Amino acid sequence: MKKYRIGQIVPSSNVTMETEIPALFRSRETILPERFTFHSSRMRMKKVTKEELEAMDAMSLKCAQELSDAHVDVMGYACLVAIMSMGRGYHCVSEVNLHQETIANDFPTPIVTSAGALINGLNVLNAKKVAVITPYMRPLTDLVVDYIEHQGFEVVDSIALEIPDNLEVAAQDPMNLLEIYKRLDLTGVDVLVASACVQMPSLEAIDLLEKEIGIPVTSAAVCTTYEMMKKLGIEAKAPIGGRLLSGSY
Predict the structure, then answer these.
(1) Catalytic residue among 63, 79, 92, 223
(2) Over the stretch 65-83, which tens digit does the pLDDT of each residue have?
């Protein structure tokens, strides 16, 4: 029985990434023999503003060092908007920088950023046109939309719930997404990103949304888990909720 250590670089006010990602890995444990433990290092951030996100991102290298000390098998940077607000394509820069920290600490570790994972997940799903729900203020949501479009996708529509307090983001009821999505124009959309934020809960609603609207539905957390599994070299079917572990798309 193979055991894996999952490392997460987490905003100090994030309480969702350490619930949704373990929940997906625990689901895997019910059908496959691998086992997982979870280990976090935190970056200070309370308000989701560009200034706080930039200051927080500067702390990520120290977090990578700390997790590398624990010899984790994969490391995830758990804040999509922090990466996307730093400029187009920044996930590539961040992933290289974090990996270099693990090399310097004599334990090279695969790196996943939730921003890069979402982009990779949309590519796996062969998405061309997407719709996005975020909890961010509109200016940050616009940065996320621009970032996704720069990666080659068309964002047909987006919702910004405009919640600046990160703990309030975590307190959102994921089942509200079953009503929120109805404000989107889904004409021609290939994939719905139900939560472009690893702090806004969505896991309980993803499969219900997909059943209701009839197109693939994913989230930053689901894509991050999928990418972590791929980096670990273990089977992952598709970055879509309940079909992460089985089935096709």
Answers:
(1) 79
(2) 999 999 999 999 988 888 9
